[in-house]
Amino acid sequence: MRIRSALLGVAATALLAAAAQLTTPASAAAHPFGPPATARIDVDGTEVTITWQAAEDDWVALGQSLGAFEDPAAGPVDTTLTGEQKLARSNQVRRYLTERIVVRQAGEPCRSTVLPLEDLLRQGARLTFDCPQPAVEVEIQLDALTDLHTAYRTVLTATGPMTPDQALFTSAQTTHRVSLSGDGRAGTVATLAVGTGAALAGGVAVSIAWRTLRRRRTG
């Protein structure tokens, strides 16, 4: 059973059964060596928005690790909600996102808000950050999923032209200092962290190779 059908599919019990088969322990369910999670950044004046998107099975592993789903062995399971809805309603998931995705300006965290986690699997999780000054120079911390497995990575891009056009977050490098246009344009990002280029090139190459292999297998 594919995880997507379990999540979007109907019964939460079906999801939990499928997830339980794949997630004992939880980290075993995830795919840290698959394509990296993705994040997109937008800036409008003092407001920064980051949209973080992970694979369906990684959302399941994350939800299980945070207790977003009931344990069928421990008691009744609410079958009126899908797994995606349970993730969206979980305070633990929202708290996790605010702790793992952080924007700082001049060393101080910008006030973050997790927007409603609707259509989570398709649209990802969106967080906004209200910074005290126009978001021209900020530091971004992004280490979601790395607590489940250190091989997880996230590739950050922007919706507009970027220089360079991507930044790679790993368990070894969870923070990048970036420059943003800060004028409402759809994102100009310059990664300032030393040594990012080589790591990013490697991560992107792995991602492209993995996707190519997957297409060949499924083609």
Concise structural overview:
The protein is of the alpha+beta class and 219 residues long. The protein is built from eight helices and eleven strands. The strands form two sheets. Strands 5-6-2-1-8-9 form a six-stranded mixed beta sheet.
Distance between the termini: 20 Å
Poorly predicted regions: 1-28, 186-219
Q: What Rg, in angstroms, do the CA atoms define?
A: 18 Å
Helix residue percentage: 25-40%
Globular, elongated, flat, extended or rod-shaped: what is the shape? Answer: globular
Strand order of the largest sheet: 5-6-2-1-8-9
**What is the tally of beta strands?**
11
Percentage of residues in DSSP E strands = 15-25%
Largest sheet: 6 strands, mixed
Topology as H/E string? HHHEEHHHEEEHEEEEEEH
Number of helices: 8
Structural class: alpha+beta
Question: Can you give the mean pLDDT?
Answer: 76
How would you characterize this protein structure?
With 219 residues, this protein is α+β, with helices and mostly antiparallel strands. The chain contains 8 helices and 11 strands. It has helices spanning 3-8, 12-22, 26-29, 56-66, 83-89, 91-100, 120-123, 196-218; strands at residues 37-44, 47-53, 101-105, 108-109, 111-114, 125-130, 137-142, 154-158, 167-169, 175-179, 190-191. The chain has a 6-stranded mixed β-sheet with strand order 5-6-2-1-8-9. Strands 4-3-7-10-11 form a 5-stranded antiparallel β-sheet. A hairpin with an 8-residue loop joins β8 and β9 (167-169). It starts with a helix and ends with a helix.
